[in-house]
Structures are given as structure tokens and as C-alpha cells.
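re: ur msg from earlier - yeah i can do the NAP complex, just paste it... oh wait u already did. ok heres what im feeding in:
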Amino acid sequence: MKKLLLHLDTDPIPSAFDQAVAYDSNVDNVIAYGGITRDNVTPHVHGMIFTRGGKNLKNSAIFIGGSNVPASEMVGNAVKKAFFGPVKVSVMLDPNGSNTTAAAIARKVMSDYDITGKKVVIIGSGPVGQRSALFLLKEGAAEVVITSRDITRSKAIVHQMKEAYGIDVTPGQARSDESVAALLKDAHVAIAAGPAGVCVIPDIAWKNSDSLEVIADVNAVPPQGVEGLEVMDNGTEKQGIRFYGAIAIGNFKMKVHRGAIESLYESNDQFLDETTIYDIACKVDKQ
Ligand SMILES: NC(=O)c1ccc[n+]([C@@H]2O[C@H](COP(=O)([O-])OP(=O)(O)OC[C@H]3O[C@@H](n4cnc5c(N)ncnc54)[C@H](OP(=O)(O)O)[C@@H]3O)[C@@H](O)[C@H]2O)c1
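and the outut:
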């Protein structure tokens, strides 16, 4: 029986990237719709759950994407509500690649590196920064700071994370090169999770820190998010610090994304979100 993937995107045009990864993960056919909201998703879900019965249901699955992460999460909740008891299919939620990317950052940072008791500073508090904070705290980091240019925004995000995950993240403000240098002064790990094409960690910030051991950057668009880091760096040592660039992290992210899609077809009852996608990243890391 053919493996079908219903691709539901909250953006008007469904992501070509996510569809390409689906085909590279042995999906036979992708059925893609854009403009999906929690209010219009139910008939699409019914189209998947009422066409194949019993054990054949595991050959159908749903992927939820889109650049608006909260909107995609609401679609995820609506998809769950549209299921009837065992009449369901497996679902993967990876809006804007946030879950797979953050899982890849965390695993790369922890390549032959014990995060226990370390201080992590993440410049940028979008979905990727937030999920990276979650994974690293759960793995034993002593403190994780996430920053905004506006401290009221980072405080609000930290509050939301406490409510969603029960974790204590420290809010920070990164308004200038000097403020980033001050944040990194006693940090062990620095992660650039700012927007594409913006350098958020100048070299004076990391060169002035005596404590930094690992620096990672997910921005693949020049200039890099970290001055002095190369996009291909993959544990490259510079001045005693290990650097991971966006290509090294992106290559691992692709393996996690493909692994997650493939695992959807193992049963019809999985919901792959940030937590379960991180578990898949750990398995991929061990292979
Ligand atoms: N390689 C991959 O496969 C992959 C996949 C997904 C994402 N990414 C990359 O991951 C990064 C983060 O993604 P995201 O979705 O979390 O991003 P996002 O939602 O756009 O968040 C970016 C963060 O950067 C801050 N920011 C915005 N403009 C800034 C500026 N000019 N200077 C300093 N900070 C600024 C924002 O905070 P304030 O506005 O509050 O200051 C926000 O916290 C992006 O570079 C994206 O390209 C890579």
C-alpha cells in the first residue's frame, strides 16, 4: 500500500522544502494544502482517517508546517480533536523547521561535550531559540539565558515557557555588541539563533570570554550569525572553542527530519512534537 502524507501548511503556499524532504523519506505521495487554519482543517483530516481502515491506517500520515509557529500548533490541536478514538493517523509538527532544527543544535552542541552544570546563552528567542533552551535545560544545563533586543519580550517568552514546559529559563537583553559580550562573559555555550543574514555575536564578544567552550550558529545566510565562524565548521577549534556552523547543524537536521517522517509509518498513533522529535534526534545521533 502506498505511503501517503497529508501536508498541511498554515502559509498560503505549502513549503516546497518540507515536500521534498517527504519524498526523500520514502513517502510515495504528498497531498499538500496551504492556508490551513484550525477552523478549516477537519475535512482534510477526515479525508485521511476514513479512507483506510484498521492496520492500513498506518500508511497514511499528516505533516503540519508553516512559518507561523503558534498558528501551526493550533492546527495540531485541531487535528487531534478531529480523530475518533483509534481512528487516527500519525502526525508530525515541525513549523518553520523549528523542532528539527533546535534538536539538531542541541545534539551538535553535545557532541562529545557534557552540558551538565554549564551556562548557555542563546541570542534570539524565536521558536528555534526557545526549543534549544528546552532541550539543553532538560539535558542538565545549569542555566539557559534567551535574549531579545527588548527585555519585556524575553521576559514574556520565559513566562510562556514556564507555563508550557515547567522550566526556568533566564531572560536576557541583547541590544548591542557590548551587551552580548557581557552576556557571554561567564557562559560556557553560546548559540546564535537570530534572524537569517544578521550577525548577532561579534568576535569581540566571544574573544573576551574566558569561559566559552562551544559556539553554534543556525543562520546559513551571510553574514554568519557569529563573526569568525564558518558555515562549514563542525567542531572546528578556534582559540580553544569548538564551533558549529549552519551547514553542519543543517545536515544533522535533515537526518532528523527524514527519520521523523519515516517513523510516522511505524504506527497510526504517534504525535511527533518538540519532545518526541528530540528523542528521534538522540536515536539518529547514536547511529
Ligand atoms: N538550517 C535550518 O534548517 C534552519 C531551520 C529553521 C530556522 N533556521 C534559522 O534559525 C534562526 C532562528 O529561527 P527562528 O524561526 O527562531 O527565528 P525568528 O523567529 O525570526 O527569531 C529570531 C530572533 O532574533 C531576534 N532578532 C530579530 N532581528 C534581530 C536583529 N536585527 N538583531 C538581533 N536579533 C534580532 C528576534 O528577537 P527580537 O526581535 O525580540 O529582538 C528573535 O528572537 C534563523 O536564522 C533561521 O534562518 C535554520
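cool cool. The domain at 98-249 is CATH 3.40.50.720 (Rossmann fold). ping me if u need the other ligands too
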